[in-house]
Amino acid sequence: MGIGEGTGFVLLALLGGALLTHGLERWVGPPERGPALPVSLSCGTVLPNADRWLFPAGPIVGFMGVLLGTVVLPFGPDLVARDLGIGVFYFIVVIDFVVLGVALTGWGANTPGAVESCYRIVAQLVAYVVPLGLAYVGAIMMAHSLSTTRIVEAQSGLWFIVLQPIGFALYVVSGLMQSYRHPFLEPFADGIGGGILSVVGGWSALLWRIALAGVLFLVAAMGAVLFLGGWSGPWLPPPVWMAVKTYALMALMLWLGRLARPLSTAEMLALSWRVLIPVGLANVLVVGILILLHVGPG
Amino acid sequence: MQVEGNDIEAAYSLVGLLVIIAAGLGLLAMALWRRPSRTIEAPPAWAQYRFGFLIYALIFLAFDMEMIFMYPWAVVFADLGIAAFVDMMVFIALLSAGIAYAWGMGGLEWE
Amino acid sequence: MSVAGIVEIIAFASSAFIAVAGALGMATTMSMFRSAIFLMASFMGVAGLFILLSADLLGLLQILMYIGGMLVMALFMVLFMPDPGGAMMAAMPEMMTPIGRFFSLGLLPENSHAAAAEMSGAHAEHDTHADHGGGHGTHARHQDAEHQRGRERKEGDDAHGGGDHHAHGAQGGSHGMGHMDMSDMSMVTPVRAWAAWLAVATGCVIVGLLVLRPSWPVSSALPDPRSADQVGSLLMDKYMVGFEAAGFLILIGIVGAVLAAHSGQHPDHRDREARVAVNAPPPPIEADFLEPLSQPLRDDDKCSPAPDGGHANHHAGGEGPT
Description:
The complex is a heterotrimer of chains A (about 300), B (about 110) and C (about 325). By secondary structure, chain A is an all-alpha fold. Chain A contains 10 helices and 1 strand. Chain A is globular. Chain B has a single domain, classed as Methane Monooxygenase Hydroxylase, Chain G, domain 1. The longest helix of chain B is centred in the N-terminal third of the chain and has 27 residues, at about 5-30. Chain C has about 325 residues and is mostly helical. In chain C, about 55% of the residues lie in helices and about 0% in strands. Chain C is built from 13 helices and 1 strand. The longest helix of chain C is centred in the first third of the chain and has 26 residues, at about 5-30. The relative contact order of chain C is 0.06. Chains in contact: A-B, A-C, B-C. At the B-C interface, helix 1, strand 1, helix 2 and helix 3 of B face helix 1, helix 2, helix 3, helix 9 and helix 11 of C.
């Protein structure tokens, strides 16, 4: 795609995806807590104590994270804004900008709830990065490539969810951590007034709504690419398949998330480091053995 | 297949443009939003604070280093066979020893 | 000059500018959190330079490492140092260089001018009742008047809501700040001017050596865009010993971190339970010693709250999670 079409495609995909995610989250259940809390879009906020460089930079960095992440999502055999050679790695790096954005907004706001939200979001980062990476590594190993298009093409025979069920389960749990949804919503918890959601309004609320809905959309879409075969499917056109798989996976993640009680930050970190990481390392071992036994694509 | 190095720059030019667009849209929205706004009064919260996930954070830094080795290995692993597998298993064993040590010494606790 | 060439030059110039400006900001700003963020921004400039050299994997690795690393480092600075936000240091503009003042813009609250004026007149009486929340009492007595003025401004300023601040101050005091000695918080050394000029001179000498070098060897190899494959093959083939040695070093780092952090010797202070999520079901409301962390944020009602927007603001914060 050229630069112009690429830009338009990315903006359209992100805004459309975020809008549908927003609708799906409200349809699943009224969001009484967590990042889907409704925030006033019409009334801006003025914080006299804020760090006037970091606080406005937060929403922009968060929005930039999801915008850049949409660049490598494949919606069809040629419908990807840029098929970067290291697409999946780029995606992982760029989604971390959302964490950076929350940290900037939280610290910059200089209110107790927001600063606590900044600390908790860094705890969330510490918890999700390694298990999520281990879940990705399994799919990368089987596809021999970091490019999203090649990963989708490598699943033309059999979806990776069949070959790597542990990896898929790991991805679902770490994906919920990465998108701050139930049960891992401590950074946006009620006890701190919603965290940064209590100090944003107006333009920053709009950007954060897009960013927080967008990160769930991106996590679900990348899950569909990695484990559910992306845009491949029999009768419908590829973008429709991609959308169906993305939102089905998103609904599954939200539903599974709600089955658990909300975890505190301490419990989330313990879960990640004591359970998910050993499981992830075991998954790498298992997938490695499968590949050596010539199971799986090529 | 010899491809030009400029492919990379061409690919990332879209990324650079999107960065500029995101910053531009954000600044535009900040400047143009002229609705009523409310002032929030709250005590300043920048103070020395002992967060509880200290050791988790240190071990996270170590494992971040591990993950950067795993991504390139995962790409070439299937072509290199069992030697590469054993290499990575040794690496993972070293790091699992680290986690086991931390767990046993009571490091994986919230403080 | 083709469009690609111009774009390349613009990209190089902006990446280089961000790298240098970020480093400068990191060294001169008064806020420690901003310092970490500036270092992160500087390395994003470096990542841009890597990408221009077709080493995209390395460039993105830089960004990945530095987002994680700098956020953790910012938290460590919050752990160890007083005034991580820089508001107190920024209130003492006489101690900063002009560059420092520029990079510390935006840290002070907007009504600080009135507070500073009131402060210089009234700092005598703040000496006598400096004993607000217990933890700050010790260092009110034997300190430099100048430092004290900056410190007490925070405590005596009514605009920030006295009651919450006392609780906040006590909270900070209970973390072991009681013995904080203000006099070794000096961020200015007498040789600062010499150091700055020496750094500028060294930079000029290095750049001069680069520019005036007789000839640059030009390699005829084309950069290979398949960076992940290249790096992976090299790791498994030529640098395998280094790879395993790196793993061993990381293991040593983990062991050292666990040993040095003396885990288990810092039991939670009872006041923390209401504030920070603990590895246990939350305590019942009756045991909540602190004022709730999230006060209903007092805001003027210039605009009516949105139908659901009032939820986040008027929540009393008394109910814990779940």
